Amino acid sequence: MNVLIADPDSEWSNKLKKFLSQNNISTETAQTGRDSQLKIYLQKFESVIIDADVKKQSIMEVLKYIKMNHPSTKVVLTFHDQARMDQLGFNKENMKKMGVTESFVKPFAEAAILRCFTGESEVAAWKEMSSAGKSTKEEEVKGADDDFSKVHVSTFVGNDVTVLNYYIQLGPGKYVKLFHQGESFKDQDLRDMIEKKKLEYLYFKKSDRRLYINFMNDFLNDASTKGTCVGNTGLKTYEQVIDQYMSEIYDSGINHDLVDEGMKVCASMFQLIQGNRSLKEVILSLGIEYPTAHRVSFLSAFFSVLISKNLEWANRRTTEYTAFGALLSSIGMIKIAPALKVKSFEDLSASEKLEYSLYPKHGAEILSQYHYIEEPVRQIVYQHRELADGNGYPNKLRASQIYPLARIVSVAVGFSEKIVSQDITILEALREFATDRANLAKYDSQFIRALIMGFTTKKNQQ
C-alpha cells in the first residue's frame, strides 16, 4: 500500500511515516496542498492523509481534485483541534460528500490511522462499545425524512448494547428516539415496544448507515456459519441489509470499505445456501410483504448463488464474484435519464432503447475507476444483459462470446425482474420462466436447469 501524508508540520509527518513504515506501509510526504496534488498526479496512492490547513492550494481544492480524478483513493482528513474543525465548518455529512473517508482531530493514536488501512474503520467501533446503562427517556426529534433510513422490525437484530440510535416516525419530519446508542439492550425490550406502539418499521439516520451495514454483516456472517440464520426472516434480513447497502452506494459512491462489505455479504449468503437443509421451503416463503427499493438487486444476487451452487465447475470464490456482480449489475443506471427508468424496455422508443442499452457499459466504466474491484465483477456488470441469441445489449454478443459468470447473472436478473415487475410469487415466476420457450433461446439452458434444481433437488428438500 502506498500512502501520501500531506501536512505542514514536517515533524508530525515524519513521525507518522516512521510508524506506518514499521507496519509495512509505503509512504511519501508533502508539506503543501500544491505539492500533494502534484504527487497524486505523478504516482498512485491508495490513501492520502491530509491536514485541513495545508497551504499553497486550499484543502477544498485538493479534495475536489482527488474526488474528480482519483475517486477510489481513501482520504483521511486531520485537524489541529476541534475548534479548527468547527471554524472551517466541517462535519460528518459534508466531509462524506467531499470524498473524505475518515477524519481525526489531533492528537490521536497512530494505531487509529492504521485501522483505517486494515479495514477497521470507525464503522466497526461498535465492537468495542460498552454499555452506558439503560435509558427510559424517549427523545422527540425533528429532521428531514430524506435523512433517515428504515428497516422492518422483524429483521431488527439486537446486541447486548444498542449499536446506533433507532427512531420511530410520528409523522412527516417528526421522530422519537426509541433506543439510544450505547445503552443496554434486550430482545424483550423490542418485543414489548412493538406490542405497545404497534411498530412496523424502525428508523436510523443515513449518516449511520455504514455502521448498520457493518454490524449486520458481522451478524449474518456469524449466523450463516452457525446455521442460525434460517427461514423467511433470515432471507428478509439479507434483503434489508442489501437494500441499505445499495442505497449507500447510490447515495455516497463506491469505496474500498463498501466493496469489502459487499463481498462479505455475498460470502455469507453462499454459506447460508450451502448449509440450509430446508432451502426450497425458505425460498418459496420469500414473499413480498414489505418489498425494498433494491429488491431486484437482492434477488439477483441470491439466485446467482443458487444457480452457481448447482454447477459443478463453480467454486466458492467464483460464486462470490457472481453474486457481487449481480449486486452491482445496475450501477450504470445512475447515468441513464430518470424518465427512462420508469418505463419497461419494450415501451421505449428506438432512440431511448439505444440510450438505455448503454447502462451496462456505463457500469463497467464506473467500476474501472476502482482498482480493488476484480475484473470478473466488471465483466459481469458489462455483459449481464447480453443474450445467447444475440439480441441482448450493449454489444449483441452471442452464446459462447458472453462471459460465463455474466450468463449466470443474466438468468438471475431476468428471473428476478419477472418476480418484481409482475408482482407474483417465486413459484409462479419459476413455472412461467421455465416453460417459456423464448427463454430457452435467450438464456443458456444449463443455467436455467441449475436454477430449477435449486427448487427441486432432494438435497434442498431434506
Percent range for β-strand residues: 5-15%
Number of helices: 22
Strands in their spatial order, largest beta sheet: 2-1-3-4-5
β-strand number: 10
Radius of gyration: 24 Å
> pLDDT below 50 for ≥5 consecutive residues: which ranges?
458-462
- Biggest sheet details: 5 strands, parallel
- Return the structural class: alpha/beta
The shape is globular
Mean pLDDT score, rounded? 86
Distance between the termini: 47 Å
- What portion of residues is helical? 40-55%
Topology:
Blueprint: E1 2-6, H1 10-22, E2 26-30, H2 33-42, E3 47-51, H3 59-69, E4 74-79, H4 82-88, H5 92-97, E5 100-105, H6 110-117, E6 139-142, E7 148-152, E8 166-171, E9 174-179, H7 187-197, E10 201-205, H8 209-226, H9 231-252, H10 256-275, H11 279-284, H12 295-309, H13 316-327, H14 338-341, H15 350-356, H16 359-367, H17 375-383, H18 404-422, H19 426-435, H20 437-442, H21 445-456, H22 458-461
Parallel strand pairs: 1-2, 1-3, 3-4, 4-5
Antiparallel strand pairs: 6-9, 7-10, 8-9
